[in-house]
Design brief:
single chain; alpha+beta; 5-stranded mixed beta sheet; 6 helices; 40% helix
Length: 207
């Protein structure tokens, strides 16, 4: 009886061990599937990992060798040292990275640099003519339309694009069409005044 009981217990232990091993294998497999997948970095030695891109920025042609996935924002800031264009949310929600492409305002964090070959790209650094401020820049200064200044480059570029579009005819229109640009300091009333000043024809805001 004792021998039979011992054999039965050993059989139970063997079964439990086998089930435990199987369950452990399933658990490891599930964890591996849930773990974030690491993205392989491009091999610097592989010429297919990079693309030769020529961009026309602020009237000058810039030749870059970049990964196809590099955003226009990162190309401007990290490759060309044009740091006036700010990185805010990096999700197209704050407008700090707004630049002008062929006269139209876009969020540079949401588009790849490689997509803009042959386009005319204007950043905040390209609006002024030498020492002469662009009319929209001058209006922002005249009406104190900024405080900390972090969002200001995007605000100004967006305002220039708004004027180019020709859809704003009232303060309500300005507020609606500038709503994609966030000012955490709350300088909105002065921003509206500056944009209205340009829209009223007191200054020529064409790029």
């Amino acid at each position: 009886m004792r021998l039979r009981f011992r054999r039965r217990r050993l059989g139970h232990f063997a079964i439990a061990g086998t089930v435990g091993a199987v369950l452990e294998g399933f658990a490891k497999q599930a964890m591996a599937q849930l773990a974030p997948q690491t993205t392989s970095k491009p091999d610097p030695a592989d010429p297919n990992s990079y693309a030769d891109v020529k961009l026309r920025i602020n009237g000058k042609e810039q030749a870059l060798k970049i990964e196809p996935r590099v955003t226009l924002l990162d190309a401007l800031r990290e490759r060309l040292d044009l740091t006036g264009t700010k990185k805010g949310c990096d999700h197209g929600q704050c407008g700090a990275c707004t630049v002008l492409v062929n006269g139209r305002r876009i969020n540079s964090c949401l588009t790849f640099a490689i997509m803009h070959r042959g386009a005319e790209i204007i950043t905040i650094e390209g609006l002024a003519q030498g020492e002469t401020l662009h009319p929209m820049q001058a209006a922002f200064v005249a009406h104190d339309a900024f405080q900390c200044g972090y969002c200001t480059p995007g605000q100004i570029c967006s305002a220039v694009g708004l004027v180019n579009e020709g859809h704003a005819h009232s303060d309500a229109d300005i507020r609606e069409l500038m709503s994609g640009n966030i000012c955490r300091c709350g300088a909105y009333p002065n921003i509206v005044t500056a944009v209205r000043d340009v829209l009223e024809g007191k200054k020529d805001a064409a790029v």
